[in-house]
Design brief:
Largest sheet: none
CATH architecture: Orthogonal Bundle
Strand content: under 5%
Order of helices and strands: HHHHHHHHHH
Number of helices: 10
CATH topology: Hypothetical protein af1432
Shape: globular
Radius of gyration: 15 Å
Helix content: 55-70%
């Protein structure tokens, strides 16, 4: 890899001022690091998957109308074509083909991670006792976390070839050890 995690985080922070979007980036980084072991080649894919998760929305706050063109260009300038492609494909409506496990995992983890975090934030004990069943029930409630595109969640699990409940459980388990850092530990 041409860029390091520290360089990626510095770039994210340069373009992203809000804690909310930085926290989302960190949460998706954490889930994607775990996804490298579940859907990719394990340790060999870990940094690539993690950086893709961290940077996928890096340009959204400053340039929402150009998203993700700026971060994709920044990645390509640094020789990170695989990550750039995954970032350019992390929303199905952009019509970019899903060619690699990284592409599919980023799509499957992005929206769902945001949704799971939202579920944690409304529970007194946060992620500590959250189960897939609770998340699946909330997914059916279109008024809860209404900005989360349920179609993207469904497309992601379909492309990965996994069951939604299993993938939800995977995301929860990836986030649970990081509850305090992410602010999803609840009041307990």
């Amino acid at each position: 890899m041409a860029i390091t995690r520290d360089e990626a985080w510095t770039q994210l922070c340069a373009w992203t001022a809000t804690d909310a979007l930085r926290n989302h980036a960190r949460a998706v980084e954490i889930v994607m690091r775990a996804a490298a072991h579940r859907y990719g080649a394990g340790p060999d894919d870990e940094e690539c998957f993690a950086i893709a998760g961290m940077l996928h929305d890096a340009d959204y706050e400053q340039w929402p109308d150009e998203h993700p063109a700026r971060i994709v260009a920044w990645l390509r300038e640094r020789g990170e074509e695989e990550i750039a492609h995954a970032v350019s494909a992390h929303y199905t409506k952009w019509g970019v083909p899903y060619e690699t496990p990284l592409d599919r995992a980023l799509l499957a983890c992005d929206e769902l991670t945001g949704f799971v975090v939202a579920c944690c934030l409304v529970r007194p004990d946060g992620v500590r006792s959250l189960g897939a069943k609770s998340v699946l029930k909330k997914l059916k409630d279109r008024s809860f976390a209404a900005k989360v595109d349920r179609g993207e969640v469904a497309a992601g699990v379909e492309l990965l070839g996994v069951e939604l409940a299993d993938h939800v459980g995977f995301v929860i388990e990836a986030l649970r050890p990081h509850a305090e850092e992410l602010g999803i530990g609840g009041a307990a």
